[in-house]
Write a structure and sequence with these properties.
32 strands; 8% helix; mainly beta
Length: 412
């Protein structure tokens, strides 16, 4: 744990108010089955969760020849999804309940590790093959292939982008202009779209592996043994965190000398507490809210209840993937902000309560974009089958679960 004078907030491990937990979204996932979680052996205070199975929708179960290692799930059309797997690219049709688990192999693509859609240029950018090379795939042709019947033997072709290989992270920004950032073992490269292809513009060598990256309109934020910022206007590279902010001095020390490491950098401006751009720097032990100048915006750090494997923000909802559960929490402009009570001179803080869904080694497979709700694809793998689920949360219902906590001194 990071040692710091910064007040931190510890969250309850479950809903401790004995309040009913509302359904987390509708059941309009193309006639997919609902997961029965009653077989799970979980803590007593979480029993209410296993009875409310509408929280989760099952999208796909693969057994036998359909068992595979899925890296990513993308919705390609109204009734079709793409599964990017180690075994290649597959299309899943969800309009027919009887054949909802039937996959169609799309020929012409090797193992797919990462993929981003860019509708404005009608291309997808992907990381493909054993060498993890960077390729482009025509989005329209991929959509046609996904909607084709199995008898058509659908096929797409890939177009390689230069000689870039061993790509581990990939992000796209479409405004202003189209910018692509990729990372490999010891470098980060910025590409820009010119004509009909991506052109490499700048490469930064990093002392250690880049573990997370966030592409903004003016810069690239990335984490190694430091949190860095690459300015896209002049390609200057510097520490992102403001060194004059004394509440942040523990972070560089922790990254350099302890076992702490960056997991993700998230744009949480949708629930900004400062009225402008706001980011959540997620380390392996804490989460810190920062503005675009690298200064702290909220008095309290988030202290993870367990080591997070991944942290994702979507539509005001925070999804924290642990080795034995998925934690769901909603952020608001007042979350983790310390307030002064004038009468008793005690500090109070609004710390959102969390909902824990018990899973064994859940994996984040992508964000499922939906209007007025927040959803993610979640993957489960076992010795005999592979599962893909859609976990949803209504923002309105999530906000109702937030509650103020006691003073930070009592928390600590």
């Amino acid at each position: 744990m990071v040692c710091s004078n910064t007040p931190t907030a510890r969250r309850p491990l479950a809903n401790t108010n004995n309040e009913p937990i509302d359904s987390l979204g509708g059941s309009n996932y193309y006639k997919c089955h609902t997961v029965d979680m009653s077989f799970l052996d979980i803590r007593k205070e979480e029993c209410a969760l296993q009875k409310r199975t509408s929280l989760i929708e099952q999208l796909f179960v693969g057994e036998g020849k359909n068992k595979m290692y899925i890296n990513l799930v993308k919705k390609i059309s109204h009734n079709h999804f793409l599964l990017a797997c180690e075994e290649g690219l597959f299309a899943l049709s969800c309009w027919d309940k009887e054949n909802s688990n039937e996959l169609v192999k799309i020929v012409g693509v090797g193992a797919l590790h990462l993929m981003e859609f860019i509708p404005s240029i009608n291309y997808a950018i992907a990381v493909e093959g054993k060498s993890r090379r960077l390729v482009m795939i025509h989005l329209g042709l991929m959509r046609c292939a996904a909607e084709a019947p199995p008898s058509a033997c659908p096929k797409v072709t890939t177009r390689r982008l230069g000689h870039t290989e061993n790509v581990f992270l990939l992000q796209v920004q479409i405004s202003p202009g189209i910018t692509l950032v990729v990372t490999n073992q010891m470098s980060l490269t910025v590409f820009v779209w010119e004509g009909d292809s991506f052109i490499p513009r700048h490469t930064v060598c990093t002392p250690k592996i880049v573990t997370c990256v966030l592409l903004t309109q003016t810069s690239v934020l990335y984490g190694t043994d430091k949190i860095m910022e690459l300015d896209l206007r002049n390609y200057s590279n510097d520490n992102f965190l403001d060194e004059s902010d004394q509440s942040l001095v523990h972070i560089p020390t922790s990254l350099e000398y302890s076992c702490s490491f960056p997991i993700s950098i998230l744009d949480v401006s949708l629930v900004s507490s400062c009225g402008s751009k706001e980011y959540l720097i997620c380390l392996s032990d804490i989460g810190v809210f920062i503005d675009s100048f690298g200064k702290r915006t909220r008095e309290l750090d988030i202290v993870w209840s367990k080591l997070p494997l991944a942290v994702v923000f979507n539509n005001s909802t925070l999804y924290i993937f642990h080795f034995d559960s998925l934690e769901i929490q909603t952020l608001s402009p007042l979350s983790y902000v310390q307030k002064q009570n004038v009468e008793n001179k005690l500090n109070s803080t609004e710390v959102p309560s969390s909902v824990f869904l018990p899973f064994s080694n859940p994996r984040f497979l992508g964000i499922y974009e939906q209007c007025q709700s927040s959803s993610v694809f979640l993957g489960l793998g076992g010795p005999s089958k592979t599962e893909v689920m859609i976990v949803s949360k209504s923002n309105e219902k999530l906000v109702s679960n937030t509650q103020p906590t006691k003073s930070s001194n009592e928390i600590l």
